[in-house]
Amino acid sequence: MMTSPDELSKDSVEDVLAAAEAILHDPVAAPRFAVPCVRQAWAIKLEDAADLPEALREYDGLPKAQRVRFADSWQRDEQEDGEAITRGELLEQVRVLRRTTAPPNRRMLYGAWALMAVALLGILMLRMYSGSVGITQESSVGPWRVEIFAIKEFRGPSAVFRAGDADFKWKGPPHETMPKDKFATRLSTCLELDAPTRIDFVMVANDGARLFIDGEKAINAWSVSGKSRTVTRELAAGTHLIMIEHHDKRGTASINLTASIDKGLPGPIPPALLRYSDDPEKC
Fold it and tell me: What pTM value is reported for the model?
């Protein structure tokens, strides 16, 4: 369930801004995938932003020329035949939101916090690369079916389990019965929609992956590692098969799929919309 803007704190603004920045700084990801994040950040900051362009024009926390420019960019983006808001415009608004949202004492300490975060990240990475076996999301009741093959061509012995989400990272073997390198993973679930729905899918994988929707290849990043890939689908009401094929060459392996539903904030597909199927090729 989506959290409403009035339930979110300044920390939540920073969370959605961080998500927007991750998308906007990825040269492969389309800027439109960051639009829900930036819009949500404005909604939290302005408290009542059902009409975002008008709310920005009336907001006295920015110079008039800047708020008018921001309002015009959103009004243009909302028009059916209008020009989409650009990456540069979104990045500027993210910078302004970040600067004006943090309280003064937080702004003063931001540089120190950033250094601490880098240090902590370094410690975490050192621990990860010194022998951890990785992070999995195994579950006995999750809606995702996960099958890991010992050979990356989807052959050889396999291990099957259920997961709550399509989000995995492995430094060592992905399963106690599998090798740590050159394995393949197939994830599948059934997406059930009550009404026609627009969904923006975002997939990131190491080393490579493919996304299939109802048997059709929607994203092909089989030979690309570490970059996000995006695709938009207008899906009819009913049941849709979602399947991911992933392979590892060597070293750290990962796969992550998120979605923005009807232009909402990107995140894991809500489990309430998913149903487990023991057959990876049909629902």
Answer: 0.61
